Amino acid sequence: MHGRGIRRLGWFTHVPWFRVAALAIAATAGCGPLGAEAPDTVVPQVEQVEQGLTQVTGFGSNPGNLQMFRQVPAGVPANAPLVVVLHGCTQNAAGVEPGGWTAASNVYKFYVVYAQQPSSNNPTSCFNWFEPGDIARGAGEALSIKQMVDAMKAAYSIDPARVFVTGFSAGGFMVPAMLATYPDVFAAGAINSGGPYRCANSMTEGFSCMSPGISKTPAAWADLVRNAYPGYTGPRPRVSIWHGTNDFTVRPANLTESMKQWTQVHGIDQTPDTTDTVGGFPHKVYRDSAGTALVETYELTGMGHAVPVDPQYSFPGSSTACGATGAYQSDVNLCGVYHQALFFGLTETSTPPDDTTAPTVNVTAPVSGATVSGTVTVTASASDNVGVARVDFYVDGNLVGTASTAPHVFSWNTTTVANGSHVLGARAFDAAGNSALDADTSVTVSNGGTTPTTVSFTSIAAEDGYVKANADGSAAELGTLTGLALGRGVDGKHNRPLLSFDTSSLPDTASITQAFLTLSYSSGSGDPWASPAGNTLVIDVATGTFNAAATETGDWGASATASAVAGVAKFTSGTIRSTDFAGAGASAVNTRGRTQLRLRFAQNPAATAYLFVKDGANATLTVVYSP
């Protein structure tokens, strides 16, 4: 296997805080020579097995110095398809393998190759999608990946008309490079959180391509593809493009630019021929005159920088789950691997109808028109043709509780609202994301004594911040990014934000009966609630402040007046209300000055998985009290 000299650093990371480091290191890094192209037919050698994947060496001249891992399902027939999977930065083959492609290959019987970027090429294991020498036909990493395909064809019975490539982030940018340089090898590809081919020709341009994105005319984009293999007149690969609308690492504008590039390459316009939703997400299809889907896009509303998985979903005709949550693998109740395999034609079944049937739901107790007081059990009946995933309960349009299993009930403390008329609602969701709302139950609250008072406090942005530290609290330092980080970052540190509220306007005699926090989502990647499984986001309260009013490093592990007083359910967009503070938490709200809240995951995430929430006016502490 031929090596290379010191290489210019590739896409350095998924998140912005590495940009300065990337640029600094790149300034001192040299550019090594490119290896020569090897013959197409090679005899690969098998090395070790890594977490179910078998490493293969000797698969060609390998000028990109990449590593190759293969997945061979049991009972694979002759003339089977092949899918090449390209990981993102900070990932490797074993890390992305649980995302679903191995599972799908076992169900639908096709081969999988996982290409891996070693850290010797790039400190954060990113494919160098912006380096001209790595994205040209017959050179660098592009040739190494093509040689992996050649090696599989030499070792197994592969259908040359059914070879596909899919990738995420840096790998997602490498997908169009493979489609552009080797249209004679790949029949189709899936771009996940990537962008158009040759939107960058240097690392600096790469950052601009990632965010805010680079716009070109469809013709200009298409010329870049055609020039990658001059004189080629054969069919062009079909393309499936996926992007989270809350991706702040690679901006969603890249989806549009990729669509412009590949529709123009195919000679079709940029107006979708089909516009629908799949699992509740916008889906557009661009067809030729014969009705063949040549390009499709999925806009994953509310998802950050990740690929969509659905561990509760089984591939049709099997009991095999669609992947697992993990770093950059978000459970959004949509199996991206299945729909990409469907686009590739790998499922060998007719397209199953999408579940577009909404559940039914009805608030059955209390009955509309009832007069209630004290604590009341609110009950909803819900049903669905496939199954009910959860039921959310609302009072006057505000989310107050969730029930994930039947019977769907919620215990409502009516003293938290003023006496008078209130509307109860329930919204049921199924696994496909369909939902239905019942909000026609009106009740009258009549509690004796003084009517409770509800007040809301916005956080003090100048005092808010976050602290990151090792799992044991060592090496704590203040976070410097915009927003408040939670979970585990790519640097391996665990982030805990602090929110400061001036609650001195509460009467000294106030009897606090309820308190809760409302948060606003900014961005994120991965699923910290699933790392480890069942992880919870909890809130600690300090009467006054943990240390000084402004955030400081000691706040990460400082003692709280009341710990884990409330929880915050998983959310990937919009706002969310915490559960009500436990009694100790409500009592810890300070009527004479500051009240500080610290957010943390009860268990330190085992892998990179994080989110950012907003501060200031976007974080609200609501308190209900009797004077």
TrEMBL record:
According to the record, the signal peptide region is 1-38
Which keywords describe this protein according to UniProt? Hydrolase, Signal
Tell me the GO molecular function terms: hydrolase activity
Instruction: Give GO cellular component annotations, separated by semicolons.
Output: extracellular region
* One Pfam family per UniProt: Esterase_PHB
Task: Name the chain's protein.
Answer: PHB depolymerase family esterase
